[in-house]
Amino acid sequence: MSVVARSRAELHDALARTRGGGTLALVPTMGALHAGHRALLREAGRVADAVVVSVFVNPLQFGPGEDLERYPRSLEADLEVCAQEGADVVWAPDVATMYPQPPLVTVHAGDAGAVLEGVVRPGHFDGVLTVVCKLFSSVRPDVAVFGQKDAQQLVLVRRMVADLDLGVRVVGVPTVREPDGLALSSRNRHLGPDERRSALALSRGLREGAGAATDGAAAVLAAAAPVLAAEPGVAVDYLTLADPATLSPVTEGATGDALLLVAARVGPTRLIDNVALTLGGAS
Predict the structure, then answer these.
(1) Model confidence at 229, in pLDDT bands (50, 70, 90)?
(2) What global pTM score does this model have?
(3) How far apart are CA 276 and CA 40, in angstroms?
(4) Structure confidence at residue 281 as a pLDDT band (50, 70, 90)
(5) Active-site residue numbers?
(6) 69 burial type by CB count under 10 A (0-12 exposed, 13-18 middle, 19+ buried)
């Protein structure tokens, strides 16, 4: 069974007993764990000697009117997943433990945090980076494991680590999908049957776009956009091609690696997805 730490004292005690002289991996989560999180835990166990999973719904990354209260919470089920996947420690603080007073100093995501998700959710990535920085400070991992589905988050965490000399190796794990292509997300449980069928347009659009990668950036977007537009249950926030390292837009004539990213609302639920592709080469 995993050791469950709810206070900082319990965390420090668990880390002292767990770490020894080996390497430590951290898997930051907001709980509601699914098969995608299992993949993160397995990768963490592969790259390090001990694994810590954080389960914390971070209020700093939710804006007014977002789904903070609606976000699924299932700690007992999460603990079972962590135990099954061999996590050594589960760090499950409450808000008062993580933020004993409202923070005056936070991490600013900069220009790369103001595009894509940052347009729709201003300040979101400041909250993400602040809590990740706090988790790194508390756990002091050698490695941190994140999913590639949250592509912008992964880019920004890597940049924060580099810019602030945090000394943590950041590992990205490929998106895990249902057999029909839907990217796994804790928010998927909010989808009704009709909404779930509508949500498949996101992965279909990405596949169509990736299939046109050899013909260039315009062809990718031209292939993906009609798939999304044809689904009346999907309201697209953005569909864009971006540089995978900087998130800057990819223009026509560019070649090489790119990310095709989409965000959309399906009913009241907001979903994101992305696919890596190679412009001017094999997709």
Answers:
(1) very high
(2) 0.94
(3) 19
(4) low
(5) 37
(6) exposed
